[in-house]
Amino acid sequence: MKFVAALSLLVSTASAFAPSLKAATTTTLNSETLNGWVPDEEQFAWGLPGSLAPVGDFDPLGFAENADLNQIKKYREAEVQHGRVAMLAVIGMLVTEEPIEFHPLFEASNKDIGPAIRHLDEVRAVSPVFFEILGLVIGAIELNRALIGWKSPDETTLGQLRTEEGTMFQDLKDDYYPGDVNFDPLGLKPEDPEEFAEMHTKELQHGRLAMLGIAGIVAQELVDGQEIFVSMGVAQDSFDPSKLPVQFP
User: Fold this and answer.
1) H/E element holding 203?
2) Is the pTM of this model over 0.90?
3) What is the pLDDT tens value at each position of the chain, 249 positions in all?
4) 52 φ, ψ (degrees, to nearest 5)
5) Distance in angstroms (rounded) separating the CA atoms of residues 94 and 129
6) What is the CA radius of gyration of the chain?
7) Which residues does residue 25 pair with via DSSP β-bridges, in sequence order?
């Protein structure tokens, strides 16, 4: 497990250059709103990009087999968002530990607070209001995502289970592409549908590996209490548990 972080970075880099992609793209009018994707019930996951050789159409539990269009879009929305959070988490875990030890929220020059799984204790001790601010920021981001991608439920269906008629609480907009929340400050989003499908697949593959990677890093640090690079033997262990702001018996 100690090599999960390194493997995630290496394999994700390699996957970015893999040639085989499966996607349904077009240059019709739908490309303006759905980035060139035309839903096709006959294709795996309704033709959404993301399948990559040699795994191909990987769905061992059959989630995509009987999913309708709205459900498959919600699956992809959840996968993309979790992958993005996981990629940020992996970077955050690696840069805040030995040997880099860059902490944007507090100084660590005079103490070593150990593995990243314990850093939230330090954040609460040094900046108690941080979590309240973080909650407001996350809430604002999620509200913006909901307004962009989700339909407003009908008054007649509020609080009800799914019915044959009416818009429900979690229905996505017909012209919303999963994960495309109009956030592209660097202008990296391609205009060409095929290039977009390729970039989207790269993001998915990196996100999938990051989800596995962050799970492995957290599990590793919970088991041995060491920073991941220390556990791998490439960084010195200078962690003193007695300096933690929160002590456990």
Assistant:
1) helix 193-224
2) no
3) 444 444 443 344 333 333 333 333 333 334 445 888 989 889 999 999 998 888 889 999 999 988 999 899 999 999 999 999 999 999 999 888 888 888 777 665 556 677 888 888 888 888 889 899 999 999 999 999 999 998 877 655 555 555 555 556 678 888 999 999 999 999 999 999 999 999 999 999 999 999 999 999 999 999 988 888 888 888 777 766 666 555 655
4) -145, 130
5) 25
6) 21
7) 37
